[in-house]
Write a structure and sequence with these properties.
64% of the residues lie in helices and 9% in strands. It is α+β, with helices and mostly antiparallel strands. The chain has a 4-stranded antiparallel beta sheet with strand order 1-2-4-3. A hairpin with a 2-residue loop joins strand 3 and strand 4.
């Protein structure tokens, strides 16, 4: 059974009217109107995929009227034309969760939120990994250029013309080709060597060309 069908079934099981509800009559009527509209022509996408909830109407006026009702609950639902019908829709995960809660679909809210947390966590991890990969690629590319320059200096017998500080730090780069500039500096501190400044790195690369 699809997630949309599960939501519809849960809504059908709810009482049409609850005399013991703490909600005001107008609010109960508004929620009932929203619920019935969704049951008739509503759809919610599988939250494991993209977030999407919609309700279709033949009449633009009815769509606009329900839109105003939903907006009064603080849910920013949109209206657009879809083929020969008018569609109210939500694309934001948090807004969809609030909408399900507004209709009284408690079980659907729990399931939707569980999926949303896992999905958002996975997306955050992917973004972090992509960022780390990009930074690693930059580090590797910079280190490769520096190592090539140092090797070229040695091949052309220009390496000995460098200052002692530069020679020491150039050797550090050869020993640690996979570390960042900042990590190389820290390593230089630990070994009591002077800092390899960025202007010196550029000078090293220039001589190696």
């Amino acid at each position: 059974m699809s997630f949309s069908s599960e939501v519809r079934e849960e809504l059908l099981e709810l009482k049409m009217w609850d005399n013991n509800s703490s909600l005001k009559q107008d609010e109960q009527l508004a929620r009932l109107l929203i619920r019935e509209s969704f049951i008739k022509k509503g759809f919610i996408n599988d939250p494991n995929k993209e977030y999407h909830l919609e309700i279709l109407f033949k009449s633009k006026k009815k769509a606009e009227e329900l839109k105003e009702v939903i907006l009064n609950f603080g849910i920013d639902i949109k209206l657009t034309k879809k083929a020969s019908e008018y569609m109210l829709y939500l694309k934001d995960g948090e807004a969809i969760s609030s909408f399900l809660a507004l209709m009284g679909a408690a079980k659907a809210v729990i399931k939707f939120e569980e999926i949303r947390v896992i999905k958002d966590t996975r997306n955050n991890i992917n973004r972090l990994v992509n960022c780390e990969t990009a930074n690693l690629n930059k580090t590797i590319n910079a280190a490769v250029k520096q190592v090539e320059a140092i090797k070229k200096l040695k091949k052309n017998n220009q390496f000995e013309k460098l200052s002692e500080n530069l020679k020491e730090l150039a050797n550090l780069r050869i020993e640690h080709p996979d570390v960042t500039y900042e990590e190389l500096r820290k390593n230089a501190y630990k070994t009591n060597r002077k800092i390899w400044s960025k202007p010196q790195i550029r000078k090293n690369n220039k001589i190696g060309k």
